[in-house]
């Protein structure tokens, strides 16, 4: 199985893998140490003999026992020693390959995914690269710092993924770290210098002269002889370009705006930039509400709830988006996760009609589908949703439990299906969504509504509820929403999608058609 990067459960396996490798290496080292000590003591014994001999060579060599032992040492003992030393390095009990069938190892896709996640977080939350490299997220130091090699490898990888803007940023950070490094005299491995040269050359050919120059300077500092290797070819004969500012759009200068991108065009739109702002909490809801938003108690559709009322926090009245506070206890959440974990798989996105479900950088998480009738906790969730909203729960998809690891996200989308072939006609489209938050998230991971200008922070036990459709049954395009990237922590949610067919009395049509209000938003898509 691959996709270790998309959720916390996969990553835990990788940590276990490393644990076992650590144990192996440690055993190996202590065995080696014991052998080394053995060799050392044998060497000391020989040294002692030589000390004795040194005190009076003639006297020493006239003793037949000493002569015999010298002969024997040179004839057999040293050969034996040689064999043992050789054995130590060749017959290593330490081997990674022996574990390949039993332990989890990340694939290249995983490493790429983790690199993308890091870069996504840095750009979504406008993090300072130097800070990220230092292990600091939004002012809080969590992890250990990245070495200059870490940054360099990340830069190289971004380069291979054709994300040239970020390549530049990380290579520069790598050079900065290299400059600050103590002590200065340790020479990087020849392989590292080779790849630095290669990257410098390619950057040069692509026109990023500044970074190429910087990189070359570093290589030369380490190994001045290398200048012999450098023949940058015809490109060197080209006229020197005018220097561009750090923040200038380098890609545009070099490629006339046609730079290949690993990311989809949507992430370059203004709408996407706005969505990222909403994730960062930089925009507040517009004041165009007909009445102010409130937090209130309600008994919903169950008289019993007079005693235990719902705690409703309104986020928007039209479209209707609310949080029900404290709907699920920690104990029940633990049960749900236990049921879900063994079934978790990488999330897919809905294909175009006729297409196949696809893994996508658009949605990085893992999920599992659970049937409500397999556990009373889940039936209770449906009952609570019915009591709160009055909706009929006959046609719900199975509960979808999802987990986002660090960098996991779900880009803006609608939950309703725009193609009728995607849902059974007798069930109707997804009229409403309820997200049960099954965890808190330390930083990031909010559910964002870019058209409505607000984001809801996950809070364990709360339910976020909204209608995806107008009362007229038409799709409400204003409900576009997203799971912002998780910056720190692990995000768990349970999605309930309620379908429309049985809601005739629970949510009757209005006397006028109300969908036209969101046609504008359809145009934006
Ligand atoms: O993760 C979130 O906050 C949103 C999830 C979502 O929109 C979905 O799964 O359809
Ligand atoms: Fe959604």
Automatic annotation (TrEMBL):
Instruction: Please provide the record's keywords in A-Z order.
Output: Coiled coil, Dioxygenase, Endoplasmic reticulum, Glycoprotein, Iron, Metal-binding, Oxidoreductase, Signal, TPR repeat, Vitamin C
Note the PROSITE patterns from the entry: FE2OG_OXY, PROKAR_LIPOPROTEIN, TPR
* The EC number(s) this enzyme carries: 1.14.11.2
Q: What does this protein do?
A: Catalyzes the post-translational formation of 4-hydroxyproline in -Xaa-Pro-Gly- sequences in collagens and other proteins.
Q: Which residues form a coiled coil?
A: 22-91
User: Where is the protein found, in the record's own terms?
Assistant: Endoplasmic reticulum lumen
Q: Encoded by which gene?
A: LOC115620260
Domain of life, per the record? Eukaryota
- Entry protein name: procollagen-proline 4-dioxygenase
| Residue span, Fe2OG dioxygenase domain | 395-500
Would I find Iron among this entry's keywords? yes
- Which InterPro entries does the record associate with it? Oxoglu/Fe-dep_dioxygenase_dom, P4H_N, P4HA-like, Pro_4_hyd_alph, Pro_4_hyd_alph_FE2OG_OXY, TPR-like_helical_dom_sf, TPR_P4H, TPR_rpt
Q: Which residues form the TPR repeats? A: 193-226
């Amino acid at each position: 199985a691959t996709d270790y990067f998309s959720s916390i459960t996969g990553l835990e396996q990788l940590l276990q893998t490393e644990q076992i490798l650590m144990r192996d290496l440690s055993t190996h080292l202590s065995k080696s140490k014991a052998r080394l000590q053995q060799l050392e003591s044998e060497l000391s014994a020989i040294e002692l003999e030589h000390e004795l001999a040194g005190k009076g060579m003639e006297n020493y060599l006239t003793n037949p026992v000493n002569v015999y032992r010298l002969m024997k040492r040179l004839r057999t003992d040293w050969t034996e020693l040689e064999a043992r030393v050789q054995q130590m390095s060749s017959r290593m009990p330490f081997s990674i390959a022996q574990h390949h069938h039993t332990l989890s190892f990340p694939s290249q896709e995983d490493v790429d995914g983790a690199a993308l996640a890091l870069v996504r977080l840095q750009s979504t939350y406008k993090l300072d690269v130097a800070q990220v490299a230092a292990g600091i997220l939004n002012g809080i130091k969590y992890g250990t710092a990245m070495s200059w090699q870490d940054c360099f490898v990340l830069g190289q990888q971004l380069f291979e993924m054709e994300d040239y803007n970020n390549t530049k940023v990380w290579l520069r950070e790598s050079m900065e770290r290299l400059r600050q490094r103590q002590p200065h005299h340790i020479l990087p491995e020849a392989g590292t210098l080779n790849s630095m040269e290669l990257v410098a050359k390619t950057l040069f050919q692509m026109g990023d002269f500044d970074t190429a120059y910087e990189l070359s300077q570093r290589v030369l500092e380490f190994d001045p002889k290398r200048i012999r290797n450098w023949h940058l070819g015809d490109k060197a004969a080209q006229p020197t370009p005018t220097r561009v500012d750090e923040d200038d759009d380098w890609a545009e200068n070099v490629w006339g705006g046609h730079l290949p991108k690993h990311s989809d065009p949507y992430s370059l739109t203004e709408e996407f930039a706005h969505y990222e702002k909403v994730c960062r909490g930089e925009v507040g809801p517009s004041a165009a509400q007909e009445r102010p938003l409130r937090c209130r108690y309600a008994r919903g559709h169950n008289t019993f709830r007079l005693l235990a009322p719902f705690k409703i926090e309104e986020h928007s009245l039209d479209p209707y988006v609310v949080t029900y506070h404290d709907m699920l206890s920690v104990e029940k959440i633990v049960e749900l996760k236990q049921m879900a974990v063994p079934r978790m798989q990488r999330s897919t996105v809905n294909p175009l009609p006729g297409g196949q479900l696809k893994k996508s950088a658009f949605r990085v998480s893992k999920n599992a589908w659970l049937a409500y009738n397999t556990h009373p906790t889940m039936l209770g969730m449906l009952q609570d949703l019915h009591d709160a909203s009055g909706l009929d729960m006959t046609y719900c998809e199975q509960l979808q439990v999802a987990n986002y690891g660090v960098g996991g996200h779900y880009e803006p989308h609608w939950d309703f299906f725009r193609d009728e072939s995607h849902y059974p006609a007798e069930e109707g489209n997804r009229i409403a969504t309820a997200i049960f938050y099954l965890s808190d998230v330390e930083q990031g991971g909010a559910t964002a509504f870019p058209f409505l200008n607000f984001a809801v922070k996950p809070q364990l036990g709360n339910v976020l509820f909204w209608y995806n459709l107008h009362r007229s049954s038409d799709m409400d395009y204003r409900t576009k929403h997203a799971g912002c990237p998780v910056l720190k922590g692990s995000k768990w949610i349970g999605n309930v999608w309620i379908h429309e067919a049985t809601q005739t009395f629970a949510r009757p049509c209005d006397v006028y058609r109300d969908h036209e209000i969101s046609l504008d938003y359809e145009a934006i898509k």
